[in-house]
Amino acid sequence: MNPPVVPSVPEDVKARIMQAYQENFGLTLTSPIIGRKERQGVTTDPWVSTAYIGDYFYQVDLFPDGRVEAFSRSIPNDLGVPPALSADPKEQALTACRPAGTYRLLFVFLDYGNLGLTEADVSSALRSATDEINALFTRLSAAAGEKSPILQMETVGVVVPYNVEPPANVLTPADFASLSGQDVNGFDMLVQVELDSTSRTRAYWEAQYGAMQSFAYATGVCGIPPQNSDIWLSVDAASQLHGPEGRLFDTVLAHEVFHLFGYPGTHDWMCGDGTVADASDQCGALNFPSLMLGWADSDGDGVVEILDPTPYGMLK
């Protein structure tokens, strides 16, 4: 099976984006991946192009008013070192992982003891979520023409009885190591999950900011040791652990992980493979962003771009 060919976009849009790659990054891409959301009532969604090339992730946005924004993030190597590590912590934070290969995630579940969950309940839910996401990746890889999965996840979970109040309950990598007994250097992503019917951390930050806070977030940093966790999740009901809409699967593994691959917090990537219009607010299991992640063949050589040694029709 050949991967689906990326649908055409207006020639003037393609030309502007190709120009932006050349002017901002010195890249000549003859077949860039480009997509645009079609959200009802939203007139400011840009055309978005993404590219994973060598040690860097690139994104170019072309807005309806003609404005162009372009940025890049470094892709750390296997040792967790970005190719151009800066002494500036802010620049160190601008990293993304390549959405291919196998990633290991360490989950530390902080159990506040008010959900009636056992360690076996939590372990079973994590195994199920891991099996579900890997099955999804396998199906999507096959749909893209690949015989083997492009991406897989390995997870390890530890449940810890806990009673520390926010904001002192923010885990550092050292906390992950001491609470789990694991060497955190053997993991690519650290996930803090709070099992708490009162959602005390959300309540704390809502009081601090005077606004509703999400039950999950990702740092947007990947591949280098974080200051805290890479992903944080609140679970305030036992039912939220299980099923296709359970927060371990649908929220962490099928959404927040995308942010570590470069998915912006604005959620303006086109979801899906680009063959149908995307009116969704955000990408997830049912509308996996395979186009933006490079799981599509934009240059027509029969290889998805994320695995292509000469991706996006790149000229040297």
Features:
single chain; 316 residues; alpha/beta; Collagenase (Catalytic Domain); 2 domains; five-stranded mixed β-sheet; four-stranded antiparallel β-sheet; 11 strands; 24% helix; globular
Structural topology:
Layout: H1 11-25, E1 28-29, E2 33-36, E3 47-53, E4 56-62, E5 68-74, H2 89-92, E6 101-111, H3 119-143, E7 151-161, H4 173-180, E8 189-195, H5 200-209, E9 216-218, E10 231-235, H6 247-260, E11 314-315
Parallel strand pairs: 6-7, 6-8, 8-10
Antiparallel strand pairs: 1-11, 2-3, 3-4, 4-5, 9-10
Describe this structure in words.
- With 316 residues, the chain is α/β, with parallel strands linked by helices.
- It has 2 domains: 11-95 and 266-315, no CATH class; 101-260, Collagenase (Catalytic Domain) (3-Layer(aba) Sandwich).
- It has helices at 11-25, 89-92, 119-143, 173-180, 200-209, 247-260, and strands at residues 28-29, 33-36, 47-53, 56-62, 68-74, 101-111, 151-161, 189-195, 216-218, 231-235, 314-315.
- It has a 5-stranded mixed beta sheet with strand order 7-6-8-10-9, sandwiched between helices.
- A hairpin with a 2-residue loop joins strand 3 (47-53) and strand 4.
- The longest helix is centred in the middle third of the chain and has 25 residues, at 119-143.
Q: What is the CATH architecture assignment of the largest domain?
A: 3-Layer(aba) Sandwich
Q: Give me the CATH fold name of the largest domain.
A: Collagenase (Catalytic Domain)
> Could you name the CATH class of the largest domain?
Alpha Beta
Tell me, briefly, the overall form: globular
Radius of gyration: 20 Å
Reading side by side through the largest sheet, how are the strands ordered? 7-6-8-10-9
Please report which band the strand proportion falls in: under 5%, 5-15%, 15-25%, 25-35%, 35-45% or over 45%: 15-25%
> What string gives the helices and strands in order?
HEEEEEHEHEHEHEEHE
What share of residues is helical?
Answer: 10-25%
Mean pLDDT score, rounded?
Answer: 91
Q: pLDDT below 50 for ≥5 consecutive residues: which ranges?
A: 84-92
- Our measurement of the CA-to-CA distance between the termini, rounded to an integer number of angstroms, reads 29 Å
- Count all strands and give the number: 11
The chain-level structural class is: alpha/beta
Count of spatially separate domains:
2
Number of helices: 6
Main sheet summary: 5 strands, mixed
